[in-house]
Write a structure and sequence with these properties.
This protein has about 230 residues and is an alpha/beta fold. About 30% of the residues lie in helices and about 30% in strands. The protein binds adenosine-5'-diphosphate (2 copies). It comes from Senegalia massiliensis.
């Protein structure tokens, strides 16, 4: 079953000097429910632009993005997002950051804290529930940002090079935790990376952007090494 559909998508940016940048030329793409899709390609090939269009953070020049058969007109409540930079709210402590998505859905405090604590424990952050983001290392903040994105069990998890800034050991741990989340909760993940290894480790499908920017080169289906 399709969950995301991209049809004839084009995105042109106009720079301050009035140059036109065709970031995406004509993208067609279907993403199925429960797929773990890795978008991979060289820098400047349009990965982040394609992701932001799917997230509803920017809008197409031409063409459409549909999620569950509805045209995307803005960020979706059923989507979780993780960015390259640690994007926690600095004025909230860790547990209030992680439970934020549940708070705006009016989930009672006891239940949202229980969910946040469960995730933070899984991510090795139980001792930091009351800490503020600046008190945590970069890797810990990124773990908390991922916990926040998945706390409300979003149907789709969008991630833009979330592990790029982590050391190799932390990255491997987080990759494993992400696979666990995906196996347990059976959600759709769209993951941007420029690492071929990472895409092969994580993805059920790899979408390779062309070195000529703005186009998809190939799509590969991956046979998973685990059940
Ligand atoms: P990638 O994520 O693959 O590195 P991007 O999607 O970030 O590629 O960028 C694709 C192209 O679009 C690049 O040439 C980039 O400079 C340009 N671009 C991205 N965002 C903007 C923007 N807001 N304004 C102008 N150009 C942009
Ligand atoms: P990524 O590392 O994910 O490819 P970039 O570093 O290319 O992202 O872009 C970071 C931010 O800068 C984005 O918000 C993007 O839209 C913007 N951006 C990228 N290229 C340009 C550009 N040529 N002109 C203006 N903004 C840009």
């Amino acid at each position: 079953n399709k969950i995301i559909e991209v049809n004839n998508l084009k995105k042109t940016f106009i720079t301050e000097k009035q140059n036109r940048i065709e970031a995406l030329k004509e993208i067609n793409l279907d993403i199925g429910e429960q797929e773990f899709v890795c978008l991979i390609g060289p820098s400047g090939s349009g990965k982040s632009t394609l992701l932001r269009l799917m997230e509803g953070l920017i809008f197409p020049t031409e063409g459409i993005v549909k999620v569950k058969n509805k045209i995307v007109t803005g960020p979706l409540p059923e989507a979780g997002m993780v960015f390259q930079e640690y994007s926690l709210m600095p004025w909230r402590n860790i547990i209030d950051n992680v439970s934020f998505g549940l708070e705006i859905r009016n989930i009672p405090k006891i239940r949202r804290y229980a969910r946040a604590e469960e995730l933070l424990e899984k991510f090795g952050l139980s001792e930091f529930l009351q800490s503020y983001p600046y008190e945590l290392s970069g890797g810990m903040q990124q773990r908390a940002a991922i916990a926040r994105a998945i706390a409300a069990s979003p149907d789709i998890l969008f991630m833009d090079e979330p592990f790029g800034a982590l050391d190799a050991y932390t990255r491997l741990q987080m990759q494993k935790d992400l696979i666990d989340f995906w196996l347990e909760e059976k959600r759709t993940v769209v993951f941007v990376t420029h690492s071929i290894e990472e895409s092969i480790f994580l993805g059920t499908k790899i979408i390779l952007m062309s070195p000529r920017p703005g186009q998809i080169d190939k799509e590969y289906d991956i046979n998973l090494p685990y059940p």
